[in-house]
């Protein structure tokens, strides 16, 4: 949190509220530091001046044009002060201010404070009051593109809210595709892709198209956690036996085996293959021991070579499968014995 | 008001015995430096940061109080002054707590206030019925919670609501727990098993902690895909040992806490490398001033100081009291309250 931009704003012609004629009627209200104040914080006269008057205005309940301007100054000094934002909304309603002017002002504030909960929430309330989302996609696009943070959680939340509330899904896949092209490891963009598809519906055609899309991305960057997670997420939409979804599209399994055979050892690829073979081992009664051995070997490779830091997880996966298969075997034996008994 | 308001005068120079400095400082817990850091929090005349964070003062006090208690140094603060401050912040109209006087009540600060009151065994000094009414009033028809009357919805608030009610022992017969659970589960992502702030929002370690903690408090951990989520959380550990909050982000001490506590609740703490994580957390200590920063070399703050100390406690570091992973409070307090957040067994 830096003071520099405020200094620019509150430059030479800054007149403290305590010296302003039109504020003479207000008695500034200092922060009550309780019965045992030890040290007064004397870092900024300006800050104290503005907030003493802001407290006075809030205590008095004055909702006027000058009070609105005062909150503008206060929020420029501390945009995270949610009480001031709330009071500002009260004023806006009371004096029936032009909310489009408020939107412009907020665009500016968000440009400087893109990671601030309060500003985004205020924006949302104003958009709701106006019932006009026409600037929201552009605003969030700017926050994600220009400010160099394509993963800004606040901007994505706001974008999802606007899309969901005002049904703005139409061009979203194109935008998301552009972001993924720019940075294939942008997890936020992959998440947004899933968000849109979930709304449009995972028809067999959509699933097919998305699997191809993702495999093409993985061909370019193999060790990409986001893309592999997305792939699994799409496969899980394929319906049918939910214990066999990872194997529902043989071309994906083939694709992964090809990567493996070509020598790729990305932990995400191996993790996917482990899940695939595990599913097969539990699903097929015939040669499940051979499949289980594949899982054990891959888990061992992960634990000792490719993902040593998480070795205990891989040891768990292997032992868990073993105990599941043992249990199945026992049940089968019991069943055969009771059959014999009859 | 600053933190030194609460410090007992007699503590003045008891830190003179601070550790001698040597080249290995960064590998050892600078215990007394951290105590001193918390005691001095906000003392510097020019503490811009402290003034800017007025709007979250209540949480700041909870972070400091809890960190000191984990270090066995709670008696350095004057109980009476802390409680006076907390009590002044309860809103007579809504029953919720404001971060400090002159601000509006909010769920975030209400939980912090209740946590502080529990730590001091002082729940009987406030109107708890009013707090319950405040929390209950914020639940929405879909089961979610507003943070305050302004209507922001977030899984953080679901956690704050059930944590507050659990500490007050009023979770049953207050809110609609079934609907609350349903909303939280609607924020679970099918791609990675994690949780975001709202349905469809990206998985994020801080919010996963809120949702896993929520399920722990409502005794619903069986709803989790533990293996899948557990793996995603393990993936947050980077080669240098620190944990990040989302793929391709930098490691951070607070995310280390959120991932670590979630894994602990799920009985999967052993899936990551504790030694490496401990190294990372210790590397984020400020050897000069005390306190922890978000990552190595940055400025310390009180928030990361609690999560640094808390993380080390979960990892079993010596000299620290055990911490409860769900409520981020010393375990002895949770025992005293006879509260039992659910925790899964190690498989």
UniProtKB/TrEMBL annotation, chain A:
Pfam families: PPTA. One of its GO terms (cellular component) is CAAX-protein geranylgeranyltransferase complex. Its cofactor is Mg(2+). One of its GO terms (molecular function) is protein farnesyltransferase activity. It is an enzyme of class 2 (transferase). InterPro entries: Prenyl_trans_a. Gene3D superfamilies: Protein prenylyltransferase (1.25.40.120). Its EC number is 2.5.1.58, 2.5.1.59. Transmembrane segments: none annotated. Keywords: Magnesium, Prenyltransferase, Repeat, Transferase. Belongs to the protein prenyltransferase subunit alpha family. This is Protein farnesyltransferase/geranylgeranyltransferase type-1 subunit alpha. It comes from Drosophila willistoni.
From TrEMBL, chain B:
Binds 1 zinc ion per subunit. GO terms for molecular function: metal ion binding; Rab geranylgeranyltransferase activity. It catalyses: geranylgeranyl diphosphate + L-cysteinyl-[protein] = S-geranylgeranyl-L-cysteinyl-[protein] + diphosphate. Keywords: Metal-binding, Phosphoprotein, Prenyltransferase, Repeat, Transferase, Zinc. The keyword Transit peptide does not apply. Its EC number is 2.5.1.60. It comes from the Eukaryota. InterPro entries: PGGT1B-like, Prenyltrans, Ptb1, Terpenoid_cyclase/PrenylTrfase. Its cofactor is Zn(2+). GO terms for cellular component: Rab-protein geranylgeranyltransferase complex. Residues 32-329 form the Prenyltransferase alpha-alpha toroid domain. Pfam families: Prenyltrans. The keyword Transmembrane helix does not apply. SUPFAM superfamilies: Terpenoid cyclases/Protein prenyltransferases (SSF48239). Catalyzes the transfer of a geranylgeranyl moiety from geranylgeranyl diphosphate to both cysteines of proteins with the C-terminal sequence -XXCC, -XCXC and -CCXX. Belongs to the protein prenyltransferase subunit beta family. Heterotrimer composed of RABGGTA, RABGGTB and CHM; within this trimer, RABGGTA and RABGGTB form the catalytic component B, while CHM (component A) mediates peptide substrate binding. The Rab GGTase dimer (RGGT) interacts with CHM (component A) prior to Rab protein binding; the association is stabilized by geranylgeranyl pyrophosphate (GGpp). The CHM:RGGT:Rab complex is destabilized by GGpp. Interaction of RABGGTB with prenylated PTP4A2 precludes its association with RABGGTA and inhibits enzyme activity. Interacts with CHODL. This is Geranylgeranyl transferase type-2 subunit beta. The lineage of its organism: Eukaryota, Metazoa, Ecdysozoa, Arthropoda, Hexapoda.
């Amino acid at each position: 949190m830096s003071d520099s931009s405020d200094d620019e704003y509150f430059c030479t012609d800054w007149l403290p509220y305590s010296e302003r004629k039109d504020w003479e009627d207000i008695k500034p209200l200092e922060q009550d530091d309780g019965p045992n104040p030890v040290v007064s914080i004397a870092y900024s006269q300006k800050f104290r001046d503005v907030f003493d008057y802001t407290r006075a205005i809030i205590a008095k309940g004055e909702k006027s044009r000058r009070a609105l301007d005062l909150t503008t100054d206060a929020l420029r000094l501390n945009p995270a002060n949610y009480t001031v934002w709330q009071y500002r909304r009260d004023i806006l309603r009371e004096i029936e201010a032009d909310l489009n002017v408020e939107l412009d002002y907020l665009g500016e504030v968000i440009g400087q404070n893109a990671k601030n909960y309060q500003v985004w929430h205020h924006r949302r309330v104003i958009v709701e009051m106006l019932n006009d989302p026409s600037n929201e996609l552009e605003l969030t696009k700017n926050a994600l593109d220009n400010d160099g943070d394509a993963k800004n959680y606040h901007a994505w939340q706001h974008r999802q809210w606007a899309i969901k509330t005002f049904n703005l899904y139409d061009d979203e896949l194109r935008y998301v595709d552009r972001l993924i092209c720019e940075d294939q490891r942008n997890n936020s963009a992959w998440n947004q892709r899933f968000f849109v598809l979930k709304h449009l519906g995972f028809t067999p055609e959509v699933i097919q198209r998305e699997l191809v899309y993702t495999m093409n991305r993985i061909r370019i960057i193999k060790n990409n956690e986001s893309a592999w997670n997305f792939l699994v997420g799409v496969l899980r939409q394929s319906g049918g036996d939910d214990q066999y979804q990872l194997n529902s599209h043989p071309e994906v399994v083939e694709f992964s085996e090809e990567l493996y055979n070509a020598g790729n050892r990305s932990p995400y690829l191996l993790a996917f293959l482990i899940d695939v073979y595990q599913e097969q081992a539990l699903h097929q009664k015939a040669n499940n021991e051979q499949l289980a051995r594949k899982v054990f070997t891959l888990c061992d490779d992960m634990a000792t070579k490719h993902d040593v830091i998480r070795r205990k997880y891989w040891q768990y996966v292997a032992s868990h499968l073993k105990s599941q298969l043992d249990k199945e075997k026992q049940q089968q034996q019991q069943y055969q014995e009771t059959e014999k008994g009859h | 008001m600053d933190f030194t308001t609460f410090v007992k005068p007699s503590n003045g120079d008891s830190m003179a015995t601070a550790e001698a400095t040597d080249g290995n400082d960064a590998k050892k817990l600078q215990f007394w430096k951290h105590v001193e850091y918390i005691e001095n929090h906000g003392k510097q005349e020019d503490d811009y940061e402290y003034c800017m964070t007025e709007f979250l003062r209540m949480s700041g006090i909870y972070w400091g109080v809890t960190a000191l208690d984990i270090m066995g140094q709670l008696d350095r603060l004057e109980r009476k002054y802390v409680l006076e401050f907390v009590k002044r912040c309860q809103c007579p109209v809504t029953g919720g707590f404001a971060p400090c006087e002159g601000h509006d009540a909010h769920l975030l600060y209400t939980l912090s206030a209740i946590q502080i009151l529990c730590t001091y065994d002082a729940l009987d000094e406030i109107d708890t019925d009013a707090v319950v009414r405040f929390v209950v009033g914020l639940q929405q028809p879909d089961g979610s919670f507003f943070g305050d009357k302004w209507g922001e919805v977030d899984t953080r608030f679901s956690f704050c609501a059930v944590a507050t009610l659990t500490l007050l022992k009023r979770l049953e017969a207050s809110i609609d727990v079934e609907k609350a659970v349903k909303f939280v589960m609607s924020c679970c992502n099918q791609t990675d098993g994690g949780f975001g702030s709202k349905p469809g929002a990206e998985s994020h370690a801080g919010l996963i902690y809120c949702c896993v903690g929520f399920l722990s408090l409502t005794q619903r951990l069986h709803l989790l895909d533990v293996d899948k989520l557990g793996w995603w959380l393990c993936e947050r550990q980077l080669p240098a040992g620190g944990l990040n909050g989302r793929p391709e982000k930098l490691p951070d001490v607070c995310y280390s806490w959120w991932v670590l506590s979630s894994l602990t609740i799920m009985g999967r703490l052993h899936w990551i490398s504790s030694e490496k994580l401990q190294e990372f957390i210790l590397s984020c200590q400020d050897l000069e001033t005390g306190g922890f920063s978000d990552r190595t070399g940055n400025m310390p703050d009180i928030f990361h100081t609690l999560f640094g100390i808390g993380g080390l406690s979960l990892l079993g570091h010596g000299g620290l009291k055990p911490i409860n992973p769900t409520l981020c409070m010393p375990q002895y307090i949770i025992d005293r309250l006879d509260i039992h957040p659910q925790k899964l067994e190690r498989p």
